[in-house]
Specification:
Two copies of one chain form a homodimer. Chain A has 336 residues and is an alpha/beta fold. Chain A is built from 13 helices and 14 strands. In chain A, the strands form three sheets. A six-stranded parallel beta sheet of chain A has the order 2-1-3-4-5-13, with helices on both faces. In chain A, strands 7-6-8-11-12-14 form a six-stranded mixed beta sheet, with helices on both faces. In chain A, strands 9-10 form a two-stranded antiparallel sheet. In chain A, strand 9 and strand 10 form a beta hairpin. The longest helix of chain A is centred in the last third of the chain and has 17 residues. Strand 2 of chain A pairs antiparallel with strand 2 of chain B. The first copy, chain A, binds a DNA duplex (30 and 30 nucleotides) through helix 2 and helix 4.
Chain lengths: 336, 336
Amino acid sequence: MAVSIRDVADEAGVSVGTVSNVLNRPESVSAGAAERVMTAIDRLGYVRNDAARKLRGGVSTTVGFVVLDGQNPFFNDVVRGAEDEASRHGIAILYGNTDQDSSRERMYLDLFEEQQVRGVLISPYGDVFPRLERLRSHGIRAVLVDRFGGTSRFSSVSVDSVAGGRMAVEHLIATGRRRIAFVGGPMDMRQVTDRIAGARVAVDNAMDAVDLEVLAIPAMTVEEGVAAGRRVLARPRREWPDALFAANDLVALGLLQSLVVDGRMLVPDEIALIGFDDTAFAAAAAVPISSIRQPSATIGRTALRVLLEESEDPELIPRQTVFPPELVIRRSTAVR
Amino acid sequence: MAVSIRDVADEAGVSVGTVSNVLNRPESVSAGAAERVMTAIDRLGYVRNDAARKLRGGVSTTVGFVVLDGQNPFFNDVVRGAEDEASRHGIAILYGNTDQDSSRERMYLDLFEEQQVRGVLISPYGDVFPRLERLRSHGIRAVLVDRFGGTSRFSSVSVDSVAGGRMAVEHLIATGRRRIAFVGGPMDMRQVTDRIAGARVAVDNAMDAVDLEVLAIPAMTVEEGVAAGRRVLARPRREWPDALFAANDLVALGLLQSLVVDGRMLVPDEIALIGFDDTAFAAAAAVPISSIRQPSATIGRTALRVLLEESEDPELIPRQTVFPPELVIRRSTAVR
DNA sequence: AATAGGATATGAATCGATTCAGAATCGATT
DNA sequence: AATCGATTCTGAATCGATTCATATCCTATT
């Protein structure tokens, strides 16, 4: 049933070596032979067997991507970027969503190791470093996505969250807000603490007195955003902040929902709102939400490139790529 | 560098056949041997080489998923369902997003064929049937997702769009709306025409006179939703519809945005709004949007199961699985 | 003690693409 | 015609897991 390279060789009247050469190093083959092989391939409908190829050559045409939150449009955009770049190289992406579950994270790393992927892109959740080291010792490199690699032995591609936090709050201050609340969590996520740190810098540098409070939530979801917003509105009116800085766009969407009262939209007149990531849904909200843009597709694309380079030259020293964020101003932070 | 089954055999003092038996048919191996093999595996850090396995046995541990719109949360949910089910079987998903581009669609099918995937899940865009037939002749089955297979030779898993359209409009009528506009397109998408057909049935069955108009848009995106909403509001007030039925949630989000005027939210008091798919973002909108729920994760999970069954028994006759949709009522269709 | 029969274990053959040392072919030069 | 070098082609060996015919070991029965 399956057509093998041997069948093609017979059909074309050449040896298997020649067929392989036509496919892999056409410059070393005469035009006539190449021609006959190609027609034989067409006639028989031959398709390369990737398993045999991988077994012999050790070169893999798949890359694994372990994502910690498949629900978050930001990660979808990152995957898209990686996928787009991968397809240019004839590489396919093995996709694993861990949903913030360490055991799933481990399972996918095991699975990808069995598959002998070319490398792994991962936005890590648990402590995966031991396992990543093990993969590396088996010749499988990993690149961290949306997480600064620091002094680890792994390359990373991420965005400067501190700068992003700072830009967000500087913008709020510049548009006249003075009582700012940050909404995000959990507090052991590096992205969250970085964004807060950036916000603090902006507050400290401000000319006027600016108040910054931190409203911690257990997860960065729409639901937690709604709940946090309700808590704010439950206060006496004069204790309301005049601006909310959400740790990501999902939280911002939740906050926005909570700020519609009796058909009146409190954003931006009563309270300004800014998110982080700049996913499509920030722009799509009922009141378009200002956000700190991460170049998500570029992150994915870059991570894949770094991975391919490293897998080609294992001697390469890990490098940390950090992109600057960008302020995107929309109606939710309009001046009153 | 790489540890092979032979190394394990040496370490455990048994033959390679025995190691293989421990891994694949443990019942035919003595407890002692199994024990020694397992410790050897641990000690050496052995990982099965999937390429060798695939080459010999012809069984693949990957399944391809070709998605036509990676931006749409609905498809993400479907992928999640499939992925979750796959992980239970030790199967990984090769992910390909076509972004409504036939050439990408073809590329991914080729790539997946080279990878000798166990089978392919696909939400088709272009005319892929010839290629799917070719895959099938090479022993690779395909299951259509979110698309009724009809009389084709392929199984499918989808939702009854006609019923969904009907439910949506019956609900609008029941809540007192009489001038209904459907917003969706393009008109050659089966999902769209089905939903309109369902809407017509509801209108025809209504006791009162109900008006149904169709506002065609070129794509089901947020942007097109916004534009369509603006066009509606540009009419003289008395020609406004009193309800909008969006062909999917993305369009509904766009419509909602266009219906916020000067901080006043026209939904639901002036105009009711209902979407389709019931993605997380419908519930997360500033005014939570009623929607016709598709059991997205279940669709993905089921599609994967059907695929596995078919790939195990190639004689199985293709079957069309159709799930009923479900009405989810939220604030956007509240009674005035 | 001999032997049958079940339970275990063995290892050579196999899958298909790639590689590379050696063979064949061809032209040009002497 | 002989020789050399370049170009092109060949085919056996290889990767690692699985399979299955065969061999070995045990236990129970006569």
